[in-house]
Amino acid sequence: MIGYVIFKLLKKIRGKAIRHSVVPSTSKIESGTVVINSDFGEHSFCGYDCSFINCTVGRFCSIASRVVVGGARHPIEYVSTSPVFLAHKESIKKKFSRHDYRWEARTLIGSDVWIGEGTFVKGGVNIGTGAVIGMGSVVTKDVPPYAIYAGNPARLIRFRFSDEVIRGLLQSEWWNFSDEELQASAMLFKEPELFLKSRGLL
């Protein structure tokens, strides 16, 4: 028991790096995680040792540990992909030229998205609201709302609900409810059809 507590403490005290980003007090970023030029919505969390670069994360998202979202790109259309030919600062000091190269695609993650452990999400991808990404996936293309994707590269497994229910949930925009509305509706969340009927959306 003592060993476990010490292990958890050591894991926590590493800290996290958050730069030019917005993370509300209702959201949680675990230690070992880097968040750069990114925004998190209310009531979202991510696990340990994640990386978010140029990313927008919606509300109520559940992101496991070791998830990498966004990041840099090398110029595959140039003669060389090496940063020794680019203007921006790199770990390699030697420069043969300083071509100005900027690739700052923004990755968009909708609300209520669940991303499994060890997933990689390519920069510039859109993951729709309510989507689920299986652990260890490599997401290289846009993911529709309420779709379950998994694999390398990630592919559609199935949708969480029928088309009718998906339309209703997207119309409801429940993730934008006030705390009072959420409290009043939460008891119906285990039954999506009843929830939608209560809102006149089914």
Notable traits:
single chain; alpha/beta; six-stranded parallel β-sheet; 202 residues; globular; seven-stranded mixed β-sheet; 4 helices
Q: What features would you describe in this structure?
A:
By secondary structure, the protein is of the alpha/beta class. The protein is 17% helix and 22% strand. The chain has helices spanning 2-12, 163-172, 179-185, 192-198; strands at 17-19, 28-29, 34-36, 39-40, 45-46, 51-53, 55-57, 62-63, 68-69, 107-109, 114-115, 120-121, 126-127, 132-133, 138-139, 147-150, 155-159. The protein has a 7-stranded mixed beta sheet, with no helix packed on it. It has a 6-stranded parallel beta sheet with strand order 1-3-6-9-12-15, with no helix packed on it. The chain has a 4-stranded parallel beta sheet with strand order 4-7-10-13, with no helix packed on it. A hairpin with a 4-residue loop joins strand 16 (147-150) and strand 17. The mean pLDDT is 90.
Mean of the pLDDT scores?
Answer: 90
Major sheet characteristics? 7 strands, mixed
Strand order of the largest sheet: 2-5-8-11-14-16-17
Instruction: Tell me the fraction of residues in β-strands, as a range.
Output: 15-25%
Tell the overall outline: globular
The gyration radius over C-alpha positions equals 20 Å
- Helix % is 10-25%
Q: Counting H and I runs of at least 4 residues, what is the number of helices?
A: 4
Low confidence ranges: none
- Helices and strands: which structural class? alpha/beta
What is the string of helix and strand elements? HEEEEEEEEEEEEEEEEEHHH
Give the termini distance in whole angstroms: 50 Å
- Would you report the number of β strands? 17
